[in-house]
Amino acid sequence: MVRSPFFDKNGIKKGAWSDEEDNKLRAYIQRYGHPNWRELPKFAGLSRCGKSCRLRWMNYLRPNVKHGNFTKEEEDVITRVHNKLGNKWSKMAAMLPGRSDNEIKNYWHTHLKDRVRKEQTVLKNEQSKNLDEPHDVNPKRWPIEKENPNLINAEQEVEILSVVLSSSSSTSESSPTSLSVSDYEVPCDVTPQLSDSFGNIWFDEPCLPDEGSIMSSSDYMFSSLGLSDELVSQTSSEDYIIDDLVLW
DNA sequence: AATGTGCGCAACCGCCTTACC
DNA sequence: CGGTAAGGCGGTTGCGCACAT
Hints:
There is one protein chain. This protein is mainly alpha-helical. The chain has 2 domains: 6-61, Arc Repressor Mutant, subunit A; 72-240, no CATH class. The protein is built from 11 helices and 4 strands; from the N terminus they run E-E-H-H-H-H-H-H-H-H-H-E-E-H-H. The protein has helices at 19-32, 40-44, 50-61, 72-85, 89-95, 101-129, 142-147, 154-166, 198-204, 217-224, 229-234; strands at 6-7, 13-14, 206-207, 215-216. Helix 5 (89-95) crosses helix 6 (101-129) and helix 9 crosses helix 10 (217-224). The longest helix is centred in the middle third of the chain and has 29 residues, at 101-129. The chain starts with 5 loop residues before the first strand and ends in a 14-residue tail after the last helix. The model is unreliable at 134-248 (pLDDT under 50). The structure holds a DNA duplex.
């Protein structure tokens, strides 16, 4: 399934990792951490380059890393974020505790890409049929927006989400604003709704980050998005409906 | 049973960003 | 401010496996 092991001209081992190598890397990092990836293989007794060690740890050996089938909710998050941001795998990984960017990327290419493309083609055809009859793209949203003129449009949503996702520090002075990432291209009847099983992935399942501390999936999401505790605590649960990815 | 073909996924590669001097 | 090293990210590749012929 993977490249057969071999040594390059510098004596660096490439290709599939053996159990022995995995054990060495795991044992070393659990004991000493990974302050310097480049030096790590030397001290851990591995004939690998630092990059290879980092990749193996991040994608496979980390204690909290998940393998196997993606849930419907995870698929939905990937689809929605991809619609807004494109191939930002690390951003998606930050929102899906236990999933690596590599795994998300692979899953997108092998499972989701074609499916989403088909869904959007179907949608486009339907929309072109109904061109003469303008109607709400997302009927669920419009009543809310009409009630609240302060809500933002689709372009602003992408911009703000990009900032939120890339931000490493909180914007504590920001007032609670509804940040919707609802998908205008894939309506709610095409993509499954997250809110139905919202608790499953964001709140029920504890998550173990690298540091070893336990935090809830929702804490993990907010911390990975750079949202401060105070800001999160101001937030009522109704405010971050993942159905539309309203973050706060 | 043998061979061909496509898929899935771990790992590699190169570029970009960040940190440090 | 520029140079360098290290980390991180996204695109691509190689190969084992399952399924089709």
